[in-house]
Amino acid sequence: MFSTPKKLTSEVSNKGTLT
């Protein structure tokens, strides 16, 4: 989904645990 794992972690941290 996301090219960068850092982005994914940021999204998860922001949204909570939304995949």
Q: Give the low-confidence spans.
A: none
Structural class determined from secondary elements? mainly alpha
Radius of gyration (CA) equals 7 Å
Distance from first to last alpha carbon: 9 Å
How many individual helices?
A: 1
What proportion of the residues is helical, as a percent range?
Answer: 55-70%
Overview of this protein structure:
The chain is an all-alpha fold and about 20 residues long. The protein has 1 helix and no strands. The longest helix is centred in the middle third of the chain and has 11 residues, at about 5-15. It is elongated. The N and C termini lie close together (about 10 Å).
Structural features:
elongated, 19 residues, mainly alpha
What's the short version?
With 19 residues, this protein is mainly alpha-helical. It has 1 helix and no strands.
Topology at a glance:
Blueprint: H1 5-15
